């Protein structure tokens, strides 16, 4: 057998093997083409949580509750001092009564984020020691402050606008402010 004929013979054998391999793969594909790949995890609804309809939420007409299980709900505005989870509250304020300027407030379960979205407010902190003066932080539109957990505070209104706060309401208390 010549060198050329050996190369041709080897090429034919390789070609036959390649064709047989492709035929075998095609046969296996025919037997499994009805099977679908498993869905990705993010395509499956959570057990006990049906898919929900996505709709806009009026933040000035709803409180947003973020529960410890990861569910987020918009509900009628109601500050429940025994509620678990985080609560996002947005208010339109025009008077001192709208910001409970005559009451101190405390949140022992968590810090509180207070944001001035429009208008202007002052966040006032009750003195921690007798003889100390109130501390004030002025917030213009777009500014926020974090009130430490367990710190008595109140809000004074500088200009009508919108404010937002985020905290865990459990254990929160209000106390009437006395003039000093």
Description:
17% of the residues lie in helices and 36% in strands. The protein has 180 residues and is of the alpha+beta class. It folds into two domains: 1-35; 46-176, Jelly Rolls. The strands form two sheets. Strands 1, 2, 3, 5, 6, 7 and 8 form a seven-stranded antiparallel sheet that branches. A two-stranded antiparallel sheet has the order 4-9. The N and C termini lie far apart (116 Å).
Q: How much is the radius of gyration in Å?
A: 33 Å
Q: What structural category characterises the helix and strand content? A: alpha+beta
β-sheet strand percentage: 35-45%
Tell me, what is the CATH class of the largest domain? Mainly Beta
State the major sheet: 7 strands, antiparallel
Question: Using DSSP, what is the number of strands?
Answer: 9
Contiguous low-pLDDT stretches (5 residues minimum) are 31-44
CATH architectural grouping of the largest domain: Sandwich
Organism: Streptomyces aureoversilis
Protein name: Cupin
InterPro entries: RmlC-like_jellyroll, RmlC_Cupin_sf
